[in-house]
Specification:
- It contains six helices and 40 strands.
- By secondary structure, the chain is mainly β.
- The chain folds into three domains: 124 residues; 293 residues, Neuraminidase; 122 residues, no CATH class.
- The strands form eleven sheets. Strands 1, 2, 29, 30, 31 and 33 form a six-stranded mixed beta sheet that branches. The chain has a four-stranded antiparallel beta sheet with strand order 3-26-25-24, with no helix packed on it.
- The longest helix has 13 residues.
Length: 569
């Protein structure tokens, strides 16, 4: 259960009952691994005309391809460059309005001309080799004219399967490289696997996933599908419609009409914010944000792509700029997927306060997991609304706690009345949490090598441990009955055992907070972080270490007082 920011629960299943309203959720802690960092180099493509605006980019093993706009802001031509950034030529083929470029693993170039709703294929030098499509709603036809200025509407996998964002028809269509229709997935709607607006961008990851982007206001989702079109997961949207920092990295990078995606050869997704210059990087296997980066000058990003070295090239107005991949740490390649809990059904036993919760945890490669259930009165995910289910009716072996089999529906029956003394049954929200053999919180560590001034390497977290990370960690510990912690209304407290535990915490933090309080109702206290850091075997960063990590070629721009140093070798 390793993750520097476990995702918020996905609220999904509503069931009206005589006394209760149950809102059931599945929840899994995210798995993260090594951290990459991209830094501004000042390097740009040597464009032949600095007054021409550009859009779309794709990069092969030998060339960079960039779309250019005409006076009517339509993408009607493609420029070709060397990997070193030198201009080669402009393709003379006429396009109506290019909505995306992609390349296959042998140099072929695929263009989605959204203005004509056609896919057009070319050799690496721009010689036309085929086309298919047209406007329509049937298989093999597209409705893309109403999609705005899409910039990543096409992707190609290693088998030359071509994935097209059919925005107006709310689906993704899949073809062979020769244009033979294979299958489609998606539909209009807001359920998992559907698109409320339309798949405005698509990318393929070497992890074997198809990533899409659904973007109506307040509904910023990246959705993940298998290569066969089966829905896997999606990021949680900002419930406030924008600007909520806890959701920022998984939702808020794409206001406006440009939907900007790109995937690396080792399973990293980048997404650009169309109305400003930040970009965000994710591990494709679990859609977990791993870093963000920004250019020194603000400009809308209208295209993103990785080159073979892992550098990021961004189309920014009239320029195409490079973010260098400066550090390659142990990029996480999971040996198995994360546990994915799915709540299947909730029902109240007639005439009693016993609630049957049917759920299933999908975790290929893992036979059993550990699970826990949290209930929140009124659906508010706050400490004062938390009810910890402790009283169960019937057998609990293999249905809650340790040893829960994966890939199989299980039922746990919660006798709610003893766990809610004096409380009226009301609207409830449930989370099912699942943990395999991974740690509670995964911290991205960057190993900064020794140098003449610093004789020892520095293993530092790329970004701070936020209160959101600690929230989910302490929730799990409380649900599993950790004797070092207790909860009192809005606060989390240390028991006597907890006080003894933090007395040996590494490098005790300075600062003031309420004695023995882990969470004081608004933030995690000094004592709370001492507990967490000891549990995670790390310590706080020093001012000198912050300076070292933020300087030079390392440029870890997210370092703060809440960054940590690993105590593991």
């Amino acid at each position: 259960m390793n993750g520097s920011r476990p995702p918020r629960p996905i609220f999904g299943y509503f069931l009206w009952l005589p006394l209760w309203l149950f809102l059931c959720t599945g929840f899994a802690f995210a798995q993260l691994g090594g951290q990459d960092n991209w830094g501004w180099t000042g390097k740009s493509l040597a464009v032949p005309d600095a007054n021409v605006f550009r859009k779309c980019i794709a990069i092969s093993d030998t060339a960079i391809y960039v779309g250019t706009l005409n006076a009517s802001s339509k993408c009607t031509a493609i420029e070709q460059y060397t990997l070193a950034g030198a201009y080669t030529k402009t393709w003379t083929t006429a396009f109506t309005d290019v909505g995306g470029l992609a390349v296959d693993n042998v140099g072929g170039v695929y263009v989605f001309d959204q203005g004509a709703s056609f896919v057009k294929t070319f050799s690496s030098q721009g010689v036309a080799s085929g086309s298919w499509g047209g406007v329509g709603t049937t298989d093999g036809k597209f409705n893309s004219a109403a999609s705005g200025t899409m910039v990543h509407a096409i992707a190609v996998d290693e088998l030359k399967n071509v994935y097209i964002s059919d925005w107006g028809n709310s689906k993704v269509q899949v073809f062979t490289g020769a244009g033979v229709f294979k299958f489609k997935f998606g539909a209009q709607g807001d359920l998992p696997g559907q698109f409320q607006s339309g798949p405005a961008a698509v990318a393929y990851s070497p992890d074997g996933f198809v990533l899409t982007y659904d973007t109506p206001w307040g509904w910023y989702h990246i959705s993940q599908f298998s290569a066969q079109g089966a829905f896997v997961r999606r990021t949680q949207q900002d419930p406030g419609g924008g600007g909520n920092e806890s959701y920022w990295r998984v939702t808020w990078y794409g206001a406006g009409s440009d939907k900007v995606f790109g995937t690396s050869r080792d399973g990293i997704l980048i997404a650009g914010k169309a109305l400003g210059n930040p970009s965000y990087a994710y591990q494709c296997n679990n859609l977990q944000s791993i870093t963000d980066f920004a250019y020194p000058t603000d400009a809308a990003i209208n295209g993103l792509a990785f080159d073979p070295s892992g550098n990021v090239w961004a189309v920014r107005g009239t320029a195409v700029d490079c973010m260098e991949r400066r550090m390659r740490f142990d990029v996480y390649k999971p040996s198995k997927p994360l546990p994915q809990p799915l709540v299947l059904k909730v029902s109240q036993q007639l005439g009693s306060a016993v609630v049957d919760i049917d759920y299933q945890v999908n975790a290929p490669g893992t036979a059993t997991v550990e699970t826990a259930i949290a209930a929140f009165v009124g659906g508010a995910r706050t400490w004062d609304k938390l009810v910890i289910p402790k009283t169960f009716s019937g057998a609990t072996t293999g249905v809650i706690g340790t040893g829960v089999p994966t890939g199989t529906k299980v039922r746990v029956s919660w006798d709610a009345a003893p766990d809610m003394p004096g409380q009226n049954f009301a609207s409830m929200a449930f989370e099912v949490l699942a943990k395999d053999d991974r740690n509670l919180v995964g911290v991205h560590y960057a190993v900064i090598p020794a140098d003449a001034t610093n004789p020892a390497p520095l293993k530092i977290s790329n970004k701070p441990i936020a209160d959101n990370d600690l929230w989910d960690m302490f929730l799990w510990l409380l649900l599993r009955g950790d004797s070092r912690l207790s909860i009192s209304t809005t606060k989390i407290m240390l028991t006597t055992a907890g006080q003894t535990y933090i007395s040996g915490a590494p490098s005790l933090l300075s600062g003031t907070s309420v004695t023995n309080t882990v969470y004081n109702g608004s933030v995690f206290t000094t004592q709370g972080r001492q507990f967490a850091y000891k549990y995670l075997n790390c310590r706080p960063v020093t001012a000198a270490e912050k300076t070292r990590a933020s300087a030079g070629n390392f440029g870890l721009g997210s370092i703060s007082d809440n960054s940590v140093i690993s105590l593991d070798p």
